[in-house]
Write a structure and sequence with these properties.
With 279 residues, the protein is of the alpha/beta class. The protein has 2 domains: 178 residues, Rossmann fold; 73 residues, Alpha-Beta Plaits. It contains 8 helices and 12 strands. The strands form 2 sheets. An 8-stranded mixed sheet has the order 5-4-3-2-1-10-11-12, with helices on both faces. A 4-stranded antiparallel sheet has the order 6-7-9-8, with helices on one face. It is globular and about 60 Å long. 48% of the residues are buried. The structure holds magnesium ion. The site of magnesium ion has 6 residues, from loops.
């Protein structure tokens, strides 16, 4: 464990003493699953989900907070098959959708029409920029353009930023940059809102949040604000990569990708087992 902040160490100690009012939140891609070329095949790491299961039976809730549709995160994490996650939730599409393990119900409100219209315009736009091979990912409330599989992912990302921003604005959407992906999505939704809703619902005394990308920044900010206002102890985990370092400065601990997340949370699960044997 290499927690670098006093506040992070205080959270670890408090959670070890009494985990029952802890909210454990994790992003999906780049935290539970490695980043892969085809996002439809970003299966969650068995090790990482296994550790969440160990924690799930001890904490108030495990919540997966993701830009993916809830249904897809459940499928790629096989979350509906995990006995340790019987009270887990998935907040999909930045909290627009929700799945609860205890009922098995999906809440999937109808999406605004702008996304579909922007998605329809994308193939021509990409062809105009000689980037027709960029992967388009439709996520209902957002549409992503991935440059990871192109010959020069960084150059393509840069070339598309302006045109995609224009396209987004013309359909009343916003552009969310990620790791070699530009996502056009409905305005006014972010992971910070999703976290605040969970906190209002559960009143946790401690929060763990693990993220890897720019889309997690609003959640990090929301958790830091809750911590600074004295409402919760909090441990912010950055799943580190060579591709994105925006979360490093606002994290309490930086680990090496999904394997590092599994290792760190595994240490916490071990500490809980030691502190509360038989529980
Ligand atoms: Mg991610």
């Amino acid at each position: 464990m290499h927690i670098t902040s006093d506040a992070g160490r205080a959270a670890w100690a408090a959670i070890t003493t009494d985990p029952s009012t802890t909210l454990v939140c994790s992003d999906f891609d780049g935290v539970l699953s490695p980043i892969v070329d085809n996002p439809d095949e970003a299966w969650a790491s068995e090790d990482t989900v296994g550790v969440l299961e160990r924690l799930g039976s001890r904490v108030a809730k495990v919540a997966i907070v993701t830009g993916r549709p809830a249904r897809q995160a459940v499928r790629l994490g096989r979350l509906d098959e995990r006995t340790g996650l019987a009270s887990a939730s998935v907040l999909g599409l930045y909290g627009f959708e929700r799945w609860d393990a205890d009922t098995g119900d999906y809440d999937e409100p109808e999406a605004p029409g702008g996304v579909a219209n922007a998605a329809a315009a994308l193939p021509d736009l990409l062809a105009d920029h000689d980037l027709a091979d960029a992967r388009i990912e439709n996520k209902r409330l957002s549409v992503g353009v991935h440059t990871r599989e192109l010959p020069d992912p960084a150059a393509a990302f840069e070339r598309l930023t302006g045109p995609l921003t224009e396209l987004a604005e013309s359909h009343d959407l916003q552009v969310e940059p990620g790791r070699f992906v530009l996502e056009l999505r409905a305005r006014g939704l972010d992971k910070g809102d999703a976290i605040r809703r969970l906190v209002d619902e559960l009143h946790p005394t401690a929060i763990i949040y693990a993220g890897d990308d720019l889309g997690d920044l609003p959640a990090f900010r929301a958790v830091r604000w809750l911590r600074e206002s004295g409402r919760v102890k909090a441990l912010l985990i950055c799943s580190g990569s060579d591709e994105q370092d925006a979360l490093v400065a606002v994290s309490d601990v930086v680990v090496d990708g999904p394997d590092g997340v599994a290792e760190l949370l595994g240490e916490l699960a071990d500490a809980l087992d030691a502190a509360h044997p038989g529980a």
